[in-house]
Amino acid sequence: MRRMEHKIFTTNENLIQRVDSFEASIAAQMRDIKDLIGSTCGSQPTATALQGAQSGSSTNQTYAIPDLGTHTHGGTPWISSVTTQLTVPQVTMMSLLTMSIPTGNLGSARLGNKNFAFNTSNVPDPPTIHLSKDIDRLFREWETSRLLIVDGREILVKYWPEFYKKASGAKTNAWQALRVEWGNWKYIAEERERHHDSASFWRKFSNKKGERLSYKLILEVLAKQRNTNTMQDTSNTHSFFGGNLDHPDTKGAFSYVKSGKTFLTTKDDVIARKWLKLLGDDPEISSRWAAIQNIHTNTTAGPGALPSS
Predict the structure, then answer these.
(1) Which residue range forms the structural domain that includes residue 285?
(2) What is the pLDDT of residues 194-213, one digit of tens each?
(3) 112 CB neighbour count, 10 Å cutoff
(4) Would you say residue 3 lies in a domain?
(5) 178: part of which helix (H) or strand (E)?
(6) Which residue of 6, 13, 178, 283 is most buried, as measured by CB atoms within 10 A?
(7) Are 98 and 117 in contact (CB under 8 A)?
(8) What is the pTM of this model?
């Protein structure tokens, strides 16, 4: 009899622990929900809640609930250890955060491959920093930065336009002052991305004495590089289409409509940009262009040269 009582007591303790664990899980979810919707009552969501919200999680959570009913076995009452599965749908955190922002203040930024909902009234003025004075720091801040924080989220320098361009609805006058400087940062940061590491970048942008070029000189080199590339891409475009940018194969890529009339673009930088886009979007043209380049390479390689693979 004592053995049976001990067994029942142990089972009771186990069940109580499992119920307590379940209650703790539910309480944790309720706290997160309270944090998120608390902003409508004047409070701010916690950092943890914000991170959960931006993850956009909407999966269901299943809990094992003990059956606390008593049963009879051989005339002796006992508590069943059978459990019931209870599925609790988790609230979509992103939707909760979005609902907590007044419609007139709701902004959306594209950060990489994810959308970030934010309150435009919480966007601070652009950080007063000139990364031109420390290019190595520019490389770091471009990818990992705490200079700008919006609604608890650290915003990389590369994504600043998402919050300061007029379309963002936040600091509508800030971008005009920031645009040129940020654009120069972008030129340098993207050039760095074309190199294996910072050391290889600086090997290219150093003089014969091994001294690093200044910020201004780097921008001048990059400007000349872009101009050369633009001229080459424009030449390639005319060569491929036989000088006819209205060729059917262009599919209207180089035309635009103004005042109800259709025109062909004549600006080299626009032609070059649209040509590169066409190569990226149209597999047939890309394949034909690759074949032309291959023939040109084999022709100019000289007698006895092996065909390129």
Answers:
(1) 234-297
(2) 999 999 999 999 999 999 99
(3) 9
(4) no
(5) helix 174-193
(6) 178
(7) yes
(8) 0.63
